[in-house]
Amino acid sequence: MIFLSRERASVTEFETKLQSAPKLAAKGRVSRRDFVQLALAAGLTATAANAMFVQTVRAEPKKGGTLKIGIGDAATTDSLDPGSAYGNPFTNTALYGTLSNSLAEIDSKGNVVPDLAESFEPSDGARKWVFKLRKGATFHNGKTVTADDVLASIRHHTIEGTKSNAKSLLESAKNIVADGAETVVFELDGGYADFPYIVSDLPVMPAKEGGADWESGNRTGPYMLEKFEPGVIATFNRNPNYFKSDRGWFDRVECLAIYDVTARTNALYTGEVHYMDRCDLKTLDILKQNPDLAILETTGYGHYVYVMNVQKAPFDNPDVRNAIKYSLDRDEIVQKVFLGHGAIGNDNPIAPAVKFAIDPQPKHVYDPDTVKSLLKKAGAENTRFDLSVADAGFMGATDAALLWQEHARAAGLNLNVIREPNDGYWDNIWLKKPFFASFWAGRPTCDWMFSLAYAAEAVWNETSWKNPRFNELLVAARSETDDTKRAGMYAEMQQLLHDDGGLVNLVFNSYVDAHTTALAHGEVASNWTMDGGKIAERWWFA
User: Fold this and answer.
1) What percent of the chain has pLDDT over 90?
2) What residue stretches are annotated with the Solute-binding protein family domain (predicted)?
3) HEC states along 15-84?
4) HSE (side-chain half, CA atoms, 13 Å) at 45
């Protein structure tokens, strides 16, 4: 009894110390090791102790250290030019989220808020938008950001011959002018309630004679570019003059392209990187057992898709397209390949969390009888459908396609899976082959997603789908101020795409990343890549 009493007294002592430890930890006066030992003595698990420590020190971010990020998708053809599109996680994280800012940005709630602009206001039925620039914002070379820089940066996406995906998004801007050094005015050809979302995706660069200076990498972000080797590495040093005093805590940031998920995981285990994206879901339970690592999972607008070019045979036949949509068991694929991390897609790119989203009917569930009937109607019973895949398209694209191949065979559809190389996938396969795997980070508004990928002349119209009624509704909904009418228009558009488009939306994916518990962060956006992968800007060492 005496022994038990002493044991209880000892535990109470540890508990008392643990109660005061968070305040000391927040002030940097208790190390992680000592904090964890106290927590373990008080009966907490190692994982809970580490989580408590990280939560405690988040309130007091500290400057310093080198953040190393392992990223699974990059390309040797990546460019500093935002007009060539920051289209993969590496360019989004390194060249946008770490290096650059835009007039506006998307917050963790999915709302558009000022960034380089300190305010933006609509007038004339949202036909006119006035952006007031933030005072004191400078480029990395010390030059003050002016309205002329913004004009050059926006126009960079509209110049003749541009490959920028933003060109179609900016078509409504009939006039962009500077009203003094600190004001930019956009005059649109019609009302556009969502316009600030569009400019949130366009990095601001210095103006130079003849356009915008993208080659130097001189931007406004929390970190200044040191080295950029496309498809390999990008390194940065902290910008001491960043206009956001509560962001950019590290002294240095290194973004490393590590294509192989096993190599990326090993790099996290050994401390070669502090953060990795796109975890291998098959080994996630092993990662979770390591008390020094934490899993970050968010579900937002992103979706994994297979797309058909509807202008090319045999995909130009709507019966063939619908046969393909009914030939896979999405539920089995989500459970076996993604281990339940995601929500089943129904051939609609608008995520449930987006305003005006609907779930089109009927649901495209696995139905062998319907597949056989539609193939017979199209005269395509003996057609071979070549599907190009690589995990560069999305993690699990190959395994999902191989499981789909089994489903399709049982339904009488000959699906031939072609395994393509990861390197160069986005240059050699995407938009080149008629049927391939792809990934979308998604967008926070119906208009943006549709304008970017499904409008007839959109640069990133993967399916080459051109539906007159869809395009008519797209323009009408953009300027409609009555939300009830707008909801009806977007509902019809989603239904049209579901019924007739060349999209096979497999799943709205969860972003599953991992990081060392030495890292801490604030709120994470529901769509992790929507904020440009701003890991470097919004995280710090605990």
Assistant:
1) 70
2) 111-441
3) HHHHHHHHHHHHCCCCCHHHHHHHHHHCCCCHHHHHHHHHHHHCCCCECCCEEEEEECCCCCCCCCCHHH
4) 8
Spatial distance between the Cα atoms of 424 and 197, rounded to a whole number of angstroms: 30
Residue 342, both tokens: 């995601």
**3-class SS of residue 378:** helix
Cβ-contact 222, 207 below 8 angstroms? no
Task: Check residue 55 and give its pLDDT.
Answer: 60
CA distance 456 to 450: 10
pLDDT confidence of residue 373: 98
**pLDDT computed for residue 171 by the predictor:** 87
Query: Is the CB of residue 309 less than 8 Å from the CB of residue 464?
Result: yes
Count other Cβ atoms within 10 Å, centred on residue 516.
21
Query: Residue 1: pLDDT band by 50, 70, 90 thresholds?
Result: very low
With tokens 């500093």, the residue in question is 80
Spatial neighbors of 227 by CB under 8 A, at least 6 apart, are 233, 234, 235
- Each domain of the chain, given as residue ranges in start order, spans 13-59, 100-212, 222-292+517-541, 299-510
pLDDT at residue number 481: 79
What is the Cα–Cα distance from 411 to 59, expressed in whole angstroms?
56
Buried b (16+ CB within 10 A) or exposed e, 34-72: ebbebbebbebeebebbbbbbebbeeebeeebebbbbbb
Q: Which residue has the higher pLDDT, 59 or 108?
A: 108
Using CA atoms, how far apart are residues 364 and 346, in angstroms rounded to an integer? 6
Element spanning 234, H or E = strand 233-238
What three-state secondary structure class fits 4? helix
Residues 6+ apart with CB under 8 A from 279: 261, 265, 287, 295, 512, 513, 514
pLDDT, position 361: 97
Q: What does the block give as tokens for 295?
A: 């899993």
pLDDT value for 49: 66
Look up the CATH number of domain 100-212.
Answer: 3.90.76.10
Residues 334, 344 contacting (CB under 8 angstroms): yes
Q: For 401, what's the count of Cα atoms within 13 Å in the CB-facing half-sphere?
A: 28
Q: Tokens for 99?
A: 């290096």
Element (H, E) at 388: strand 384-389
The answer to whether the beta carbons of residues 58 and 522 sit under 8 Å apart is: yes
The answer to whether 507 and 342 are in contact (CB under 8 A) is yes
Topology of the domain comprising 222-292+517-541: D-Maltodextrin-Binding Protein; domain 2 (3.40.190)
Q: Give, for 372, the enclosing helix (H) or strand (E).
A: helix 368-378
Helix, strand counts (H, E) of the chain: 17, 21
pLDDT for 4 equals 34
Q: What whole-number distance in Å separates Cα of residue 530 and Cα of residue 89?
A: 11
Which top CATH class is 299-510?
alpha beta
Q: Measured between alpha carbons, how far is 189 from 458 in angstroms, rounded to an integer?
A: 18
Is pLDDT of 22 > 70? no
| Top-confidence residue, 28 or 278 | 278
